[in-house]
Design brief:
Layout (H helix, E strand, L loop, with lengths): L9 H22 L3 H4 L8 E3 L2 H22 L12 H21 L3 E3 L2 E2 L5 H5 L3 H6 L16 H96 L16 H42 L1
Parallel strand pairs: 1-2
Antiparallel strand pairs: 2-3
Helix pairs in contact: 1-4, 3-4
Length: 306
């Protein structure tokens, strides 16, 4: 691979530098008296970009294309003889200045998302040197504040929302004053109505129970009255029969139609046995109760001793 000749005469280098410096000086000298001509007329639209990243992308592409052309014209030298090419470095500086000057002059004719570029912040933000960018890759990006143009409709919308907020705040304040008292009143009414209903239900149940007891007592009284009436009737009947028997001089007379009752002897024996059993129970009951009481006392004594 043929390496390009790095050693050049000082005269050739001086001539090339003079030519390049004159080439870069001519556009700047022609641009100074025509600053107003760089701005486009009102009839022409500006170059519109959607975001600042678009402008950064354009500048980066231009610089990359310039770096590629420089690499083709001045390829890097490899090997032990590799060193910094002063001519290449100088040309890179000149090209970088040319690119920065070009975009600086074009800035008045550019707009990003409807906003014009600020001449004070534009060179520092978008046209920073790539060498400085490489050295400050971890530096925090500078915050850019952009102001939207005044819009009367949005201003009216803001005022409407502010009035709506005030109305809502007044409504909330009114609710804070009225809702707690109304809620407490409603709760108290519900509580007392429920308590009154429970009391009425209790009274109704009580009346029904008392009424049932009174009815039972009335039924008992009626049954007792009926028994008394029956006893009175029986006594009257017995009196009548005794009178009749006395008149007949205690003579037993069987009715001719009925005759003698069947199993009369067995009935009489059973009746006599029942009467005797009741009499025996009546006699033995006190003794049995006394024995049970003594047994209960003895059991309690044994349990307490244990």
């Amino acid at each position: 691979m043929n390496r390009p000749a790095r050693r050049r005469s000082s005269k050739q280098q001086q001539q090339q530098q003079q030519e390049q410096s004159s080439a870069t000086a001519t556009p700047s000298s022609s641009a100074q008296p025509n600053n107003n001509s760089n701005t486009m007329d009102g009839a022409h639209r500006k170059i519109e970009l959607q975001s600042p990243e678009d402008l950064t992308y354009l500048i980066t592409n231009v610089r990359r294309a310039a770096a590629e052309h420089l690499s083709e014209a001045f390829p890097p030298v490899e090997g032990d003889d590799a060193g910094e090419d002063e001519l290449r470095v100088r040309i890179e500086q000149i090209v970088d200045e040319y690119i920065s000057q070009t975009f600086t002059l074009a800035a008045p004719n550019l707009c990003i998302n409807g906003f014009d570029l600020d001449a004070k912040t534009f060179p520092a933000v978008y046209l920073a040197s790539p060498n400085n960018n490489n050295n400050n890759t971890h530096a925090a990006p500078e915050e850019i504040v952009q102001f939207e143009p005044f819009d009367a409709r949005k201003r009216a919308r803001v005022e409407e929302l502010a009035r709506e907020e005030e109305d809502l705040m007044r409504e909330i304040a009114t609710l804070k004053k009225t809702v707690p008292a109304a809620t407490a009143k409603q709760y108290a009414e519900t509580f007392w109505s429920g308590l009154q209903g429970d009391q009425e239900g209790f009274e109704a149940a009580k009346v029904s129970v008392v009424g049932g007891e009174e009815e039972e007592e009335e039924e008992v009284v009626e049954t007792e009255k009926e028994k008394e009436e029956q006893e009175q009737e029986e006594e009257e009947g017995e009196k009548k029969t005794t009178k009749k028997t006395k008149k007949k001089k205690n003579k037993r007379v069987l009715l001719e139609d009925l005759g003698q009752v069947e199993r009369q002897e067995d009935v009489e024996k059973g009746y006599r046995g029942v009467v005797e059993t009741l009499g025996r129970l009546k006699r033995e009951m006190p003794a049995t109760v006394a024995r049970m009481e003594r047994a209960r006392v003895a059991g309690e004594y044994v349990l307490t001793e244990r």
